[in-house]
Structures are given as C-alpha cells and as structure tokens.
Amino acid sequence: MIINKRIYGERVDAVSPGWEFIGAGNNGIVYSISKDKVIKIFREDITCDREGDILLRVHGNRYFPNLVEIGENYIVREKVDGECLKDIIKRDGLSDKIAEKVVELLNEFQRLGFTRIDVRLKDIYVDNEENIKLIDPKGYFTRRMNYPRHLCKGLKSHGGLYSFLKALYENNPELYSVSMTNIYSTNRSETAKKLYKKQKLKKGKITAYGIGGGVITGVDLPIIEELDEDINFIDITEIESLL
Known about the structure:
Blueprint: E1 20-24, E2 28-32, E3 37-42, H1 45-57, E4 67-70, E5 74-78, E6 83-84, H2 85-92, H3 96-111, E7 124-126, E8 132-134, H4 149-158, H5 161-171, H6 173-186, H7 190-198, E9 206-207, E10 210-211, H8 236-240
Antiparallel strand pairs: 1-2, 2-3, 3-5, 4-5, 6-7, 7-8, 9-10
Helix pairs in contact: 3-5, 5-6
C-alpha cells in the first residue's frame, strides 16, 4: 500500500453523499468511504497531525490499521473489522485467550517505544479469529503513562479484570509489578489504608501489599516504588477496591 504524503492546505470541508456514518467522538467523525477504507475528519488539525504521525510510525504493524492518506484535517485508513472489546466483555466476559492478546498488545507498545502504555476498551476491536486491532491511537508519543490505568478501570467496570491481571502477571511480570505499584501508591483512600493496615508482613519483605515490618499504622502511607520483580499475584477482591 502506498502512503500519500500530507499535502498542506488540503482539507475536507464537506461530506460526500456516498459516505456512510460510522461514529463520532471527542476528536472527530468517522465515515466509511468504501468496503475497506474509512475517513476520519478531525475537529482540530493538531489532533489529526498527532494521530496521523502515530499511524505513519506503525504502518504495517498487525495491531494497527494501515494508513492510506493524510490531509490537513483528515486521515484515510484501513477499515477495521470485528467487534469492540468493550461490547464483547459486557456480553460474554473476557476469555483467557483474548486477555493474553491484550497483554501482547501492551508488550508491543513497549517494543515500539510508546510513552503511554495504556488503552481504552472501546478502542480495541476483535475479529472472528480473535485477533485484535487498535483504532484511534492517541497520545502514544506525547503522553506519559507507564501502566494500563484506563484499561484496568474499564475492566473493573465491565468485567474481566481478574483474567487480564492474571495474564499480565504470567506474560509480563515487570509491567504487572509497575501496575500494582502505581495502583497502590496513587489510591490513598480509606479502603487502601485499611488494606495496608491488615497486611501482616515479614520484616523487611517487600510485597504487593506494602513494605514489611509488621502492621502499618498511621495516616501517612509510604509511596511504594521498589516492589520485587517476582511479586506475588494478589487477591482480585483487594485490588478492585483500589481502582
């Protein structure tokens, strides 16, 4: 597939009668323009520039739609078949196989050098063979998020958090450790304090629950930044209360 270089000054200001509306979001409107292509018209040119830049960098990657053309306020890309993962989970839950595929997607984010290791459920599509592809990539080189924060929140709300965390622990223990560190150190609610206080830990031992030395008391809890890489998989009921 040949990518046309962006032509400055070229814009889409009107919708063709033959285009089929697919959906609209905060950043733009998407139309189907053929059986295998869609056009996304952006509300702001800079957002178009950033999303187009991501698709240019990952062109040919199996997790992303191929880019066809970039204009000043639009992109034309490959149409993504399948069903939104959010809808699948709400209906059927999250299978172990798809959970592993989502972890593989995050692994690919790291390999590609993304600064944002996160994704929203609504942006993941699953085809009939359970392959996944990401639409609407945003902020992967301009934002910083070193763990899947929004993904975990979405899975907590719609189901599948346990399956995902288990797959993450088994397939990327380092990212699992970073995720648990962030969740525990940034959620200082009363629930979190109770969780810290009830953990009876071996002296000097660092675990997913906190820093050891007996029962932790007091209002000011430490921010944990040095969890072991061989961190144990924690009880899902405890992590859910912190998200």
